[in-house]
Amino acid sequence: MTVTYLIPIYPPDNRFILDWDDNVEASLLLALGFLVLMQLMLLIYIVLAHFQPCTLYRQQLNESYRRRYKNFIFRRLLAQLDRALRQRPGAGQELSSCLEAKRMAQLAIRLFCRDTTKVLYPEYELDSSAASDAYFVLDDEEAELNSAGYASVNFDVTDAFLESLLYPKRADIPSKNKTKS
């Protein structure tokens, strides 16, 4: 009885047998077909993962947050520089008042440079959920700017504009090349 279990049972002739010895071409074509099918499935997965409606919506929402944040940091810079340069020195305190105004202006510029770098060289993709946290603006801070009169500053703050503020010498190079030619 154990002998019958050890005898191999061959399938009927109408079944396809993957025989590596006799049909090498057919076996390689089958393996190649599986490989192409797996690559096609991976491509479909990547396309569907990238172009999902919720991903596109999140990307548009984060882009609007990013625009709001760029506008906010520019208006905040204007307000802080205005506040620093508006100080009136008292009698005999001109030097200390100028030094304080200089310190406040330097802090405002450092804060602007830090936030501009965050906008120009983002750590997160716009379709990630972490991007909305990176470009978050507190409503209280924006309301403070609006009440101070900076709501009327309606300026399109683009990446090129921020880059020209962050790196002014880079912005001058093309204009020098244009005047030479």
Please tell me about this protein's structure.
The protein is mainly alpha-helical. The chain has a domain at 60-175. 70% of the residues lie in helices and 0% in strands. It has eight helices and no strands. The N and C termini lie far apart (99 Å).
Helical content class = over 70%
Mean pLDDT: 79
Quaternary arrangement of the chains shown?
Answer: single chain
- How far apart the termini lie comes to 99 Å
Portion in strands = under 5%
Characterize the biggest β-sheet. none
Summarize this structure as a short list of keywords or feature phrases.
single chain, 181 residues, mainly alpha, 70% helix, 0% strand, elongated, disordered C terminus, membrane, DUF4736, transmembrane helix
Task: Describe the SSE topology.
Blueprint: H1 2-6, H2 24-50, H3 53-85, H4 94-120, H5 130-134, H6 139-147, H7 159-166, H8 168-180
Keywords: Membrane, Transmembrane, Transmembrane helix
InterPro entries: DUF4736
Transmembrane segments: 28-48
Structure at a glance:
This protein is mainly α and about 180 residues long. It has a domain at about 60-175.
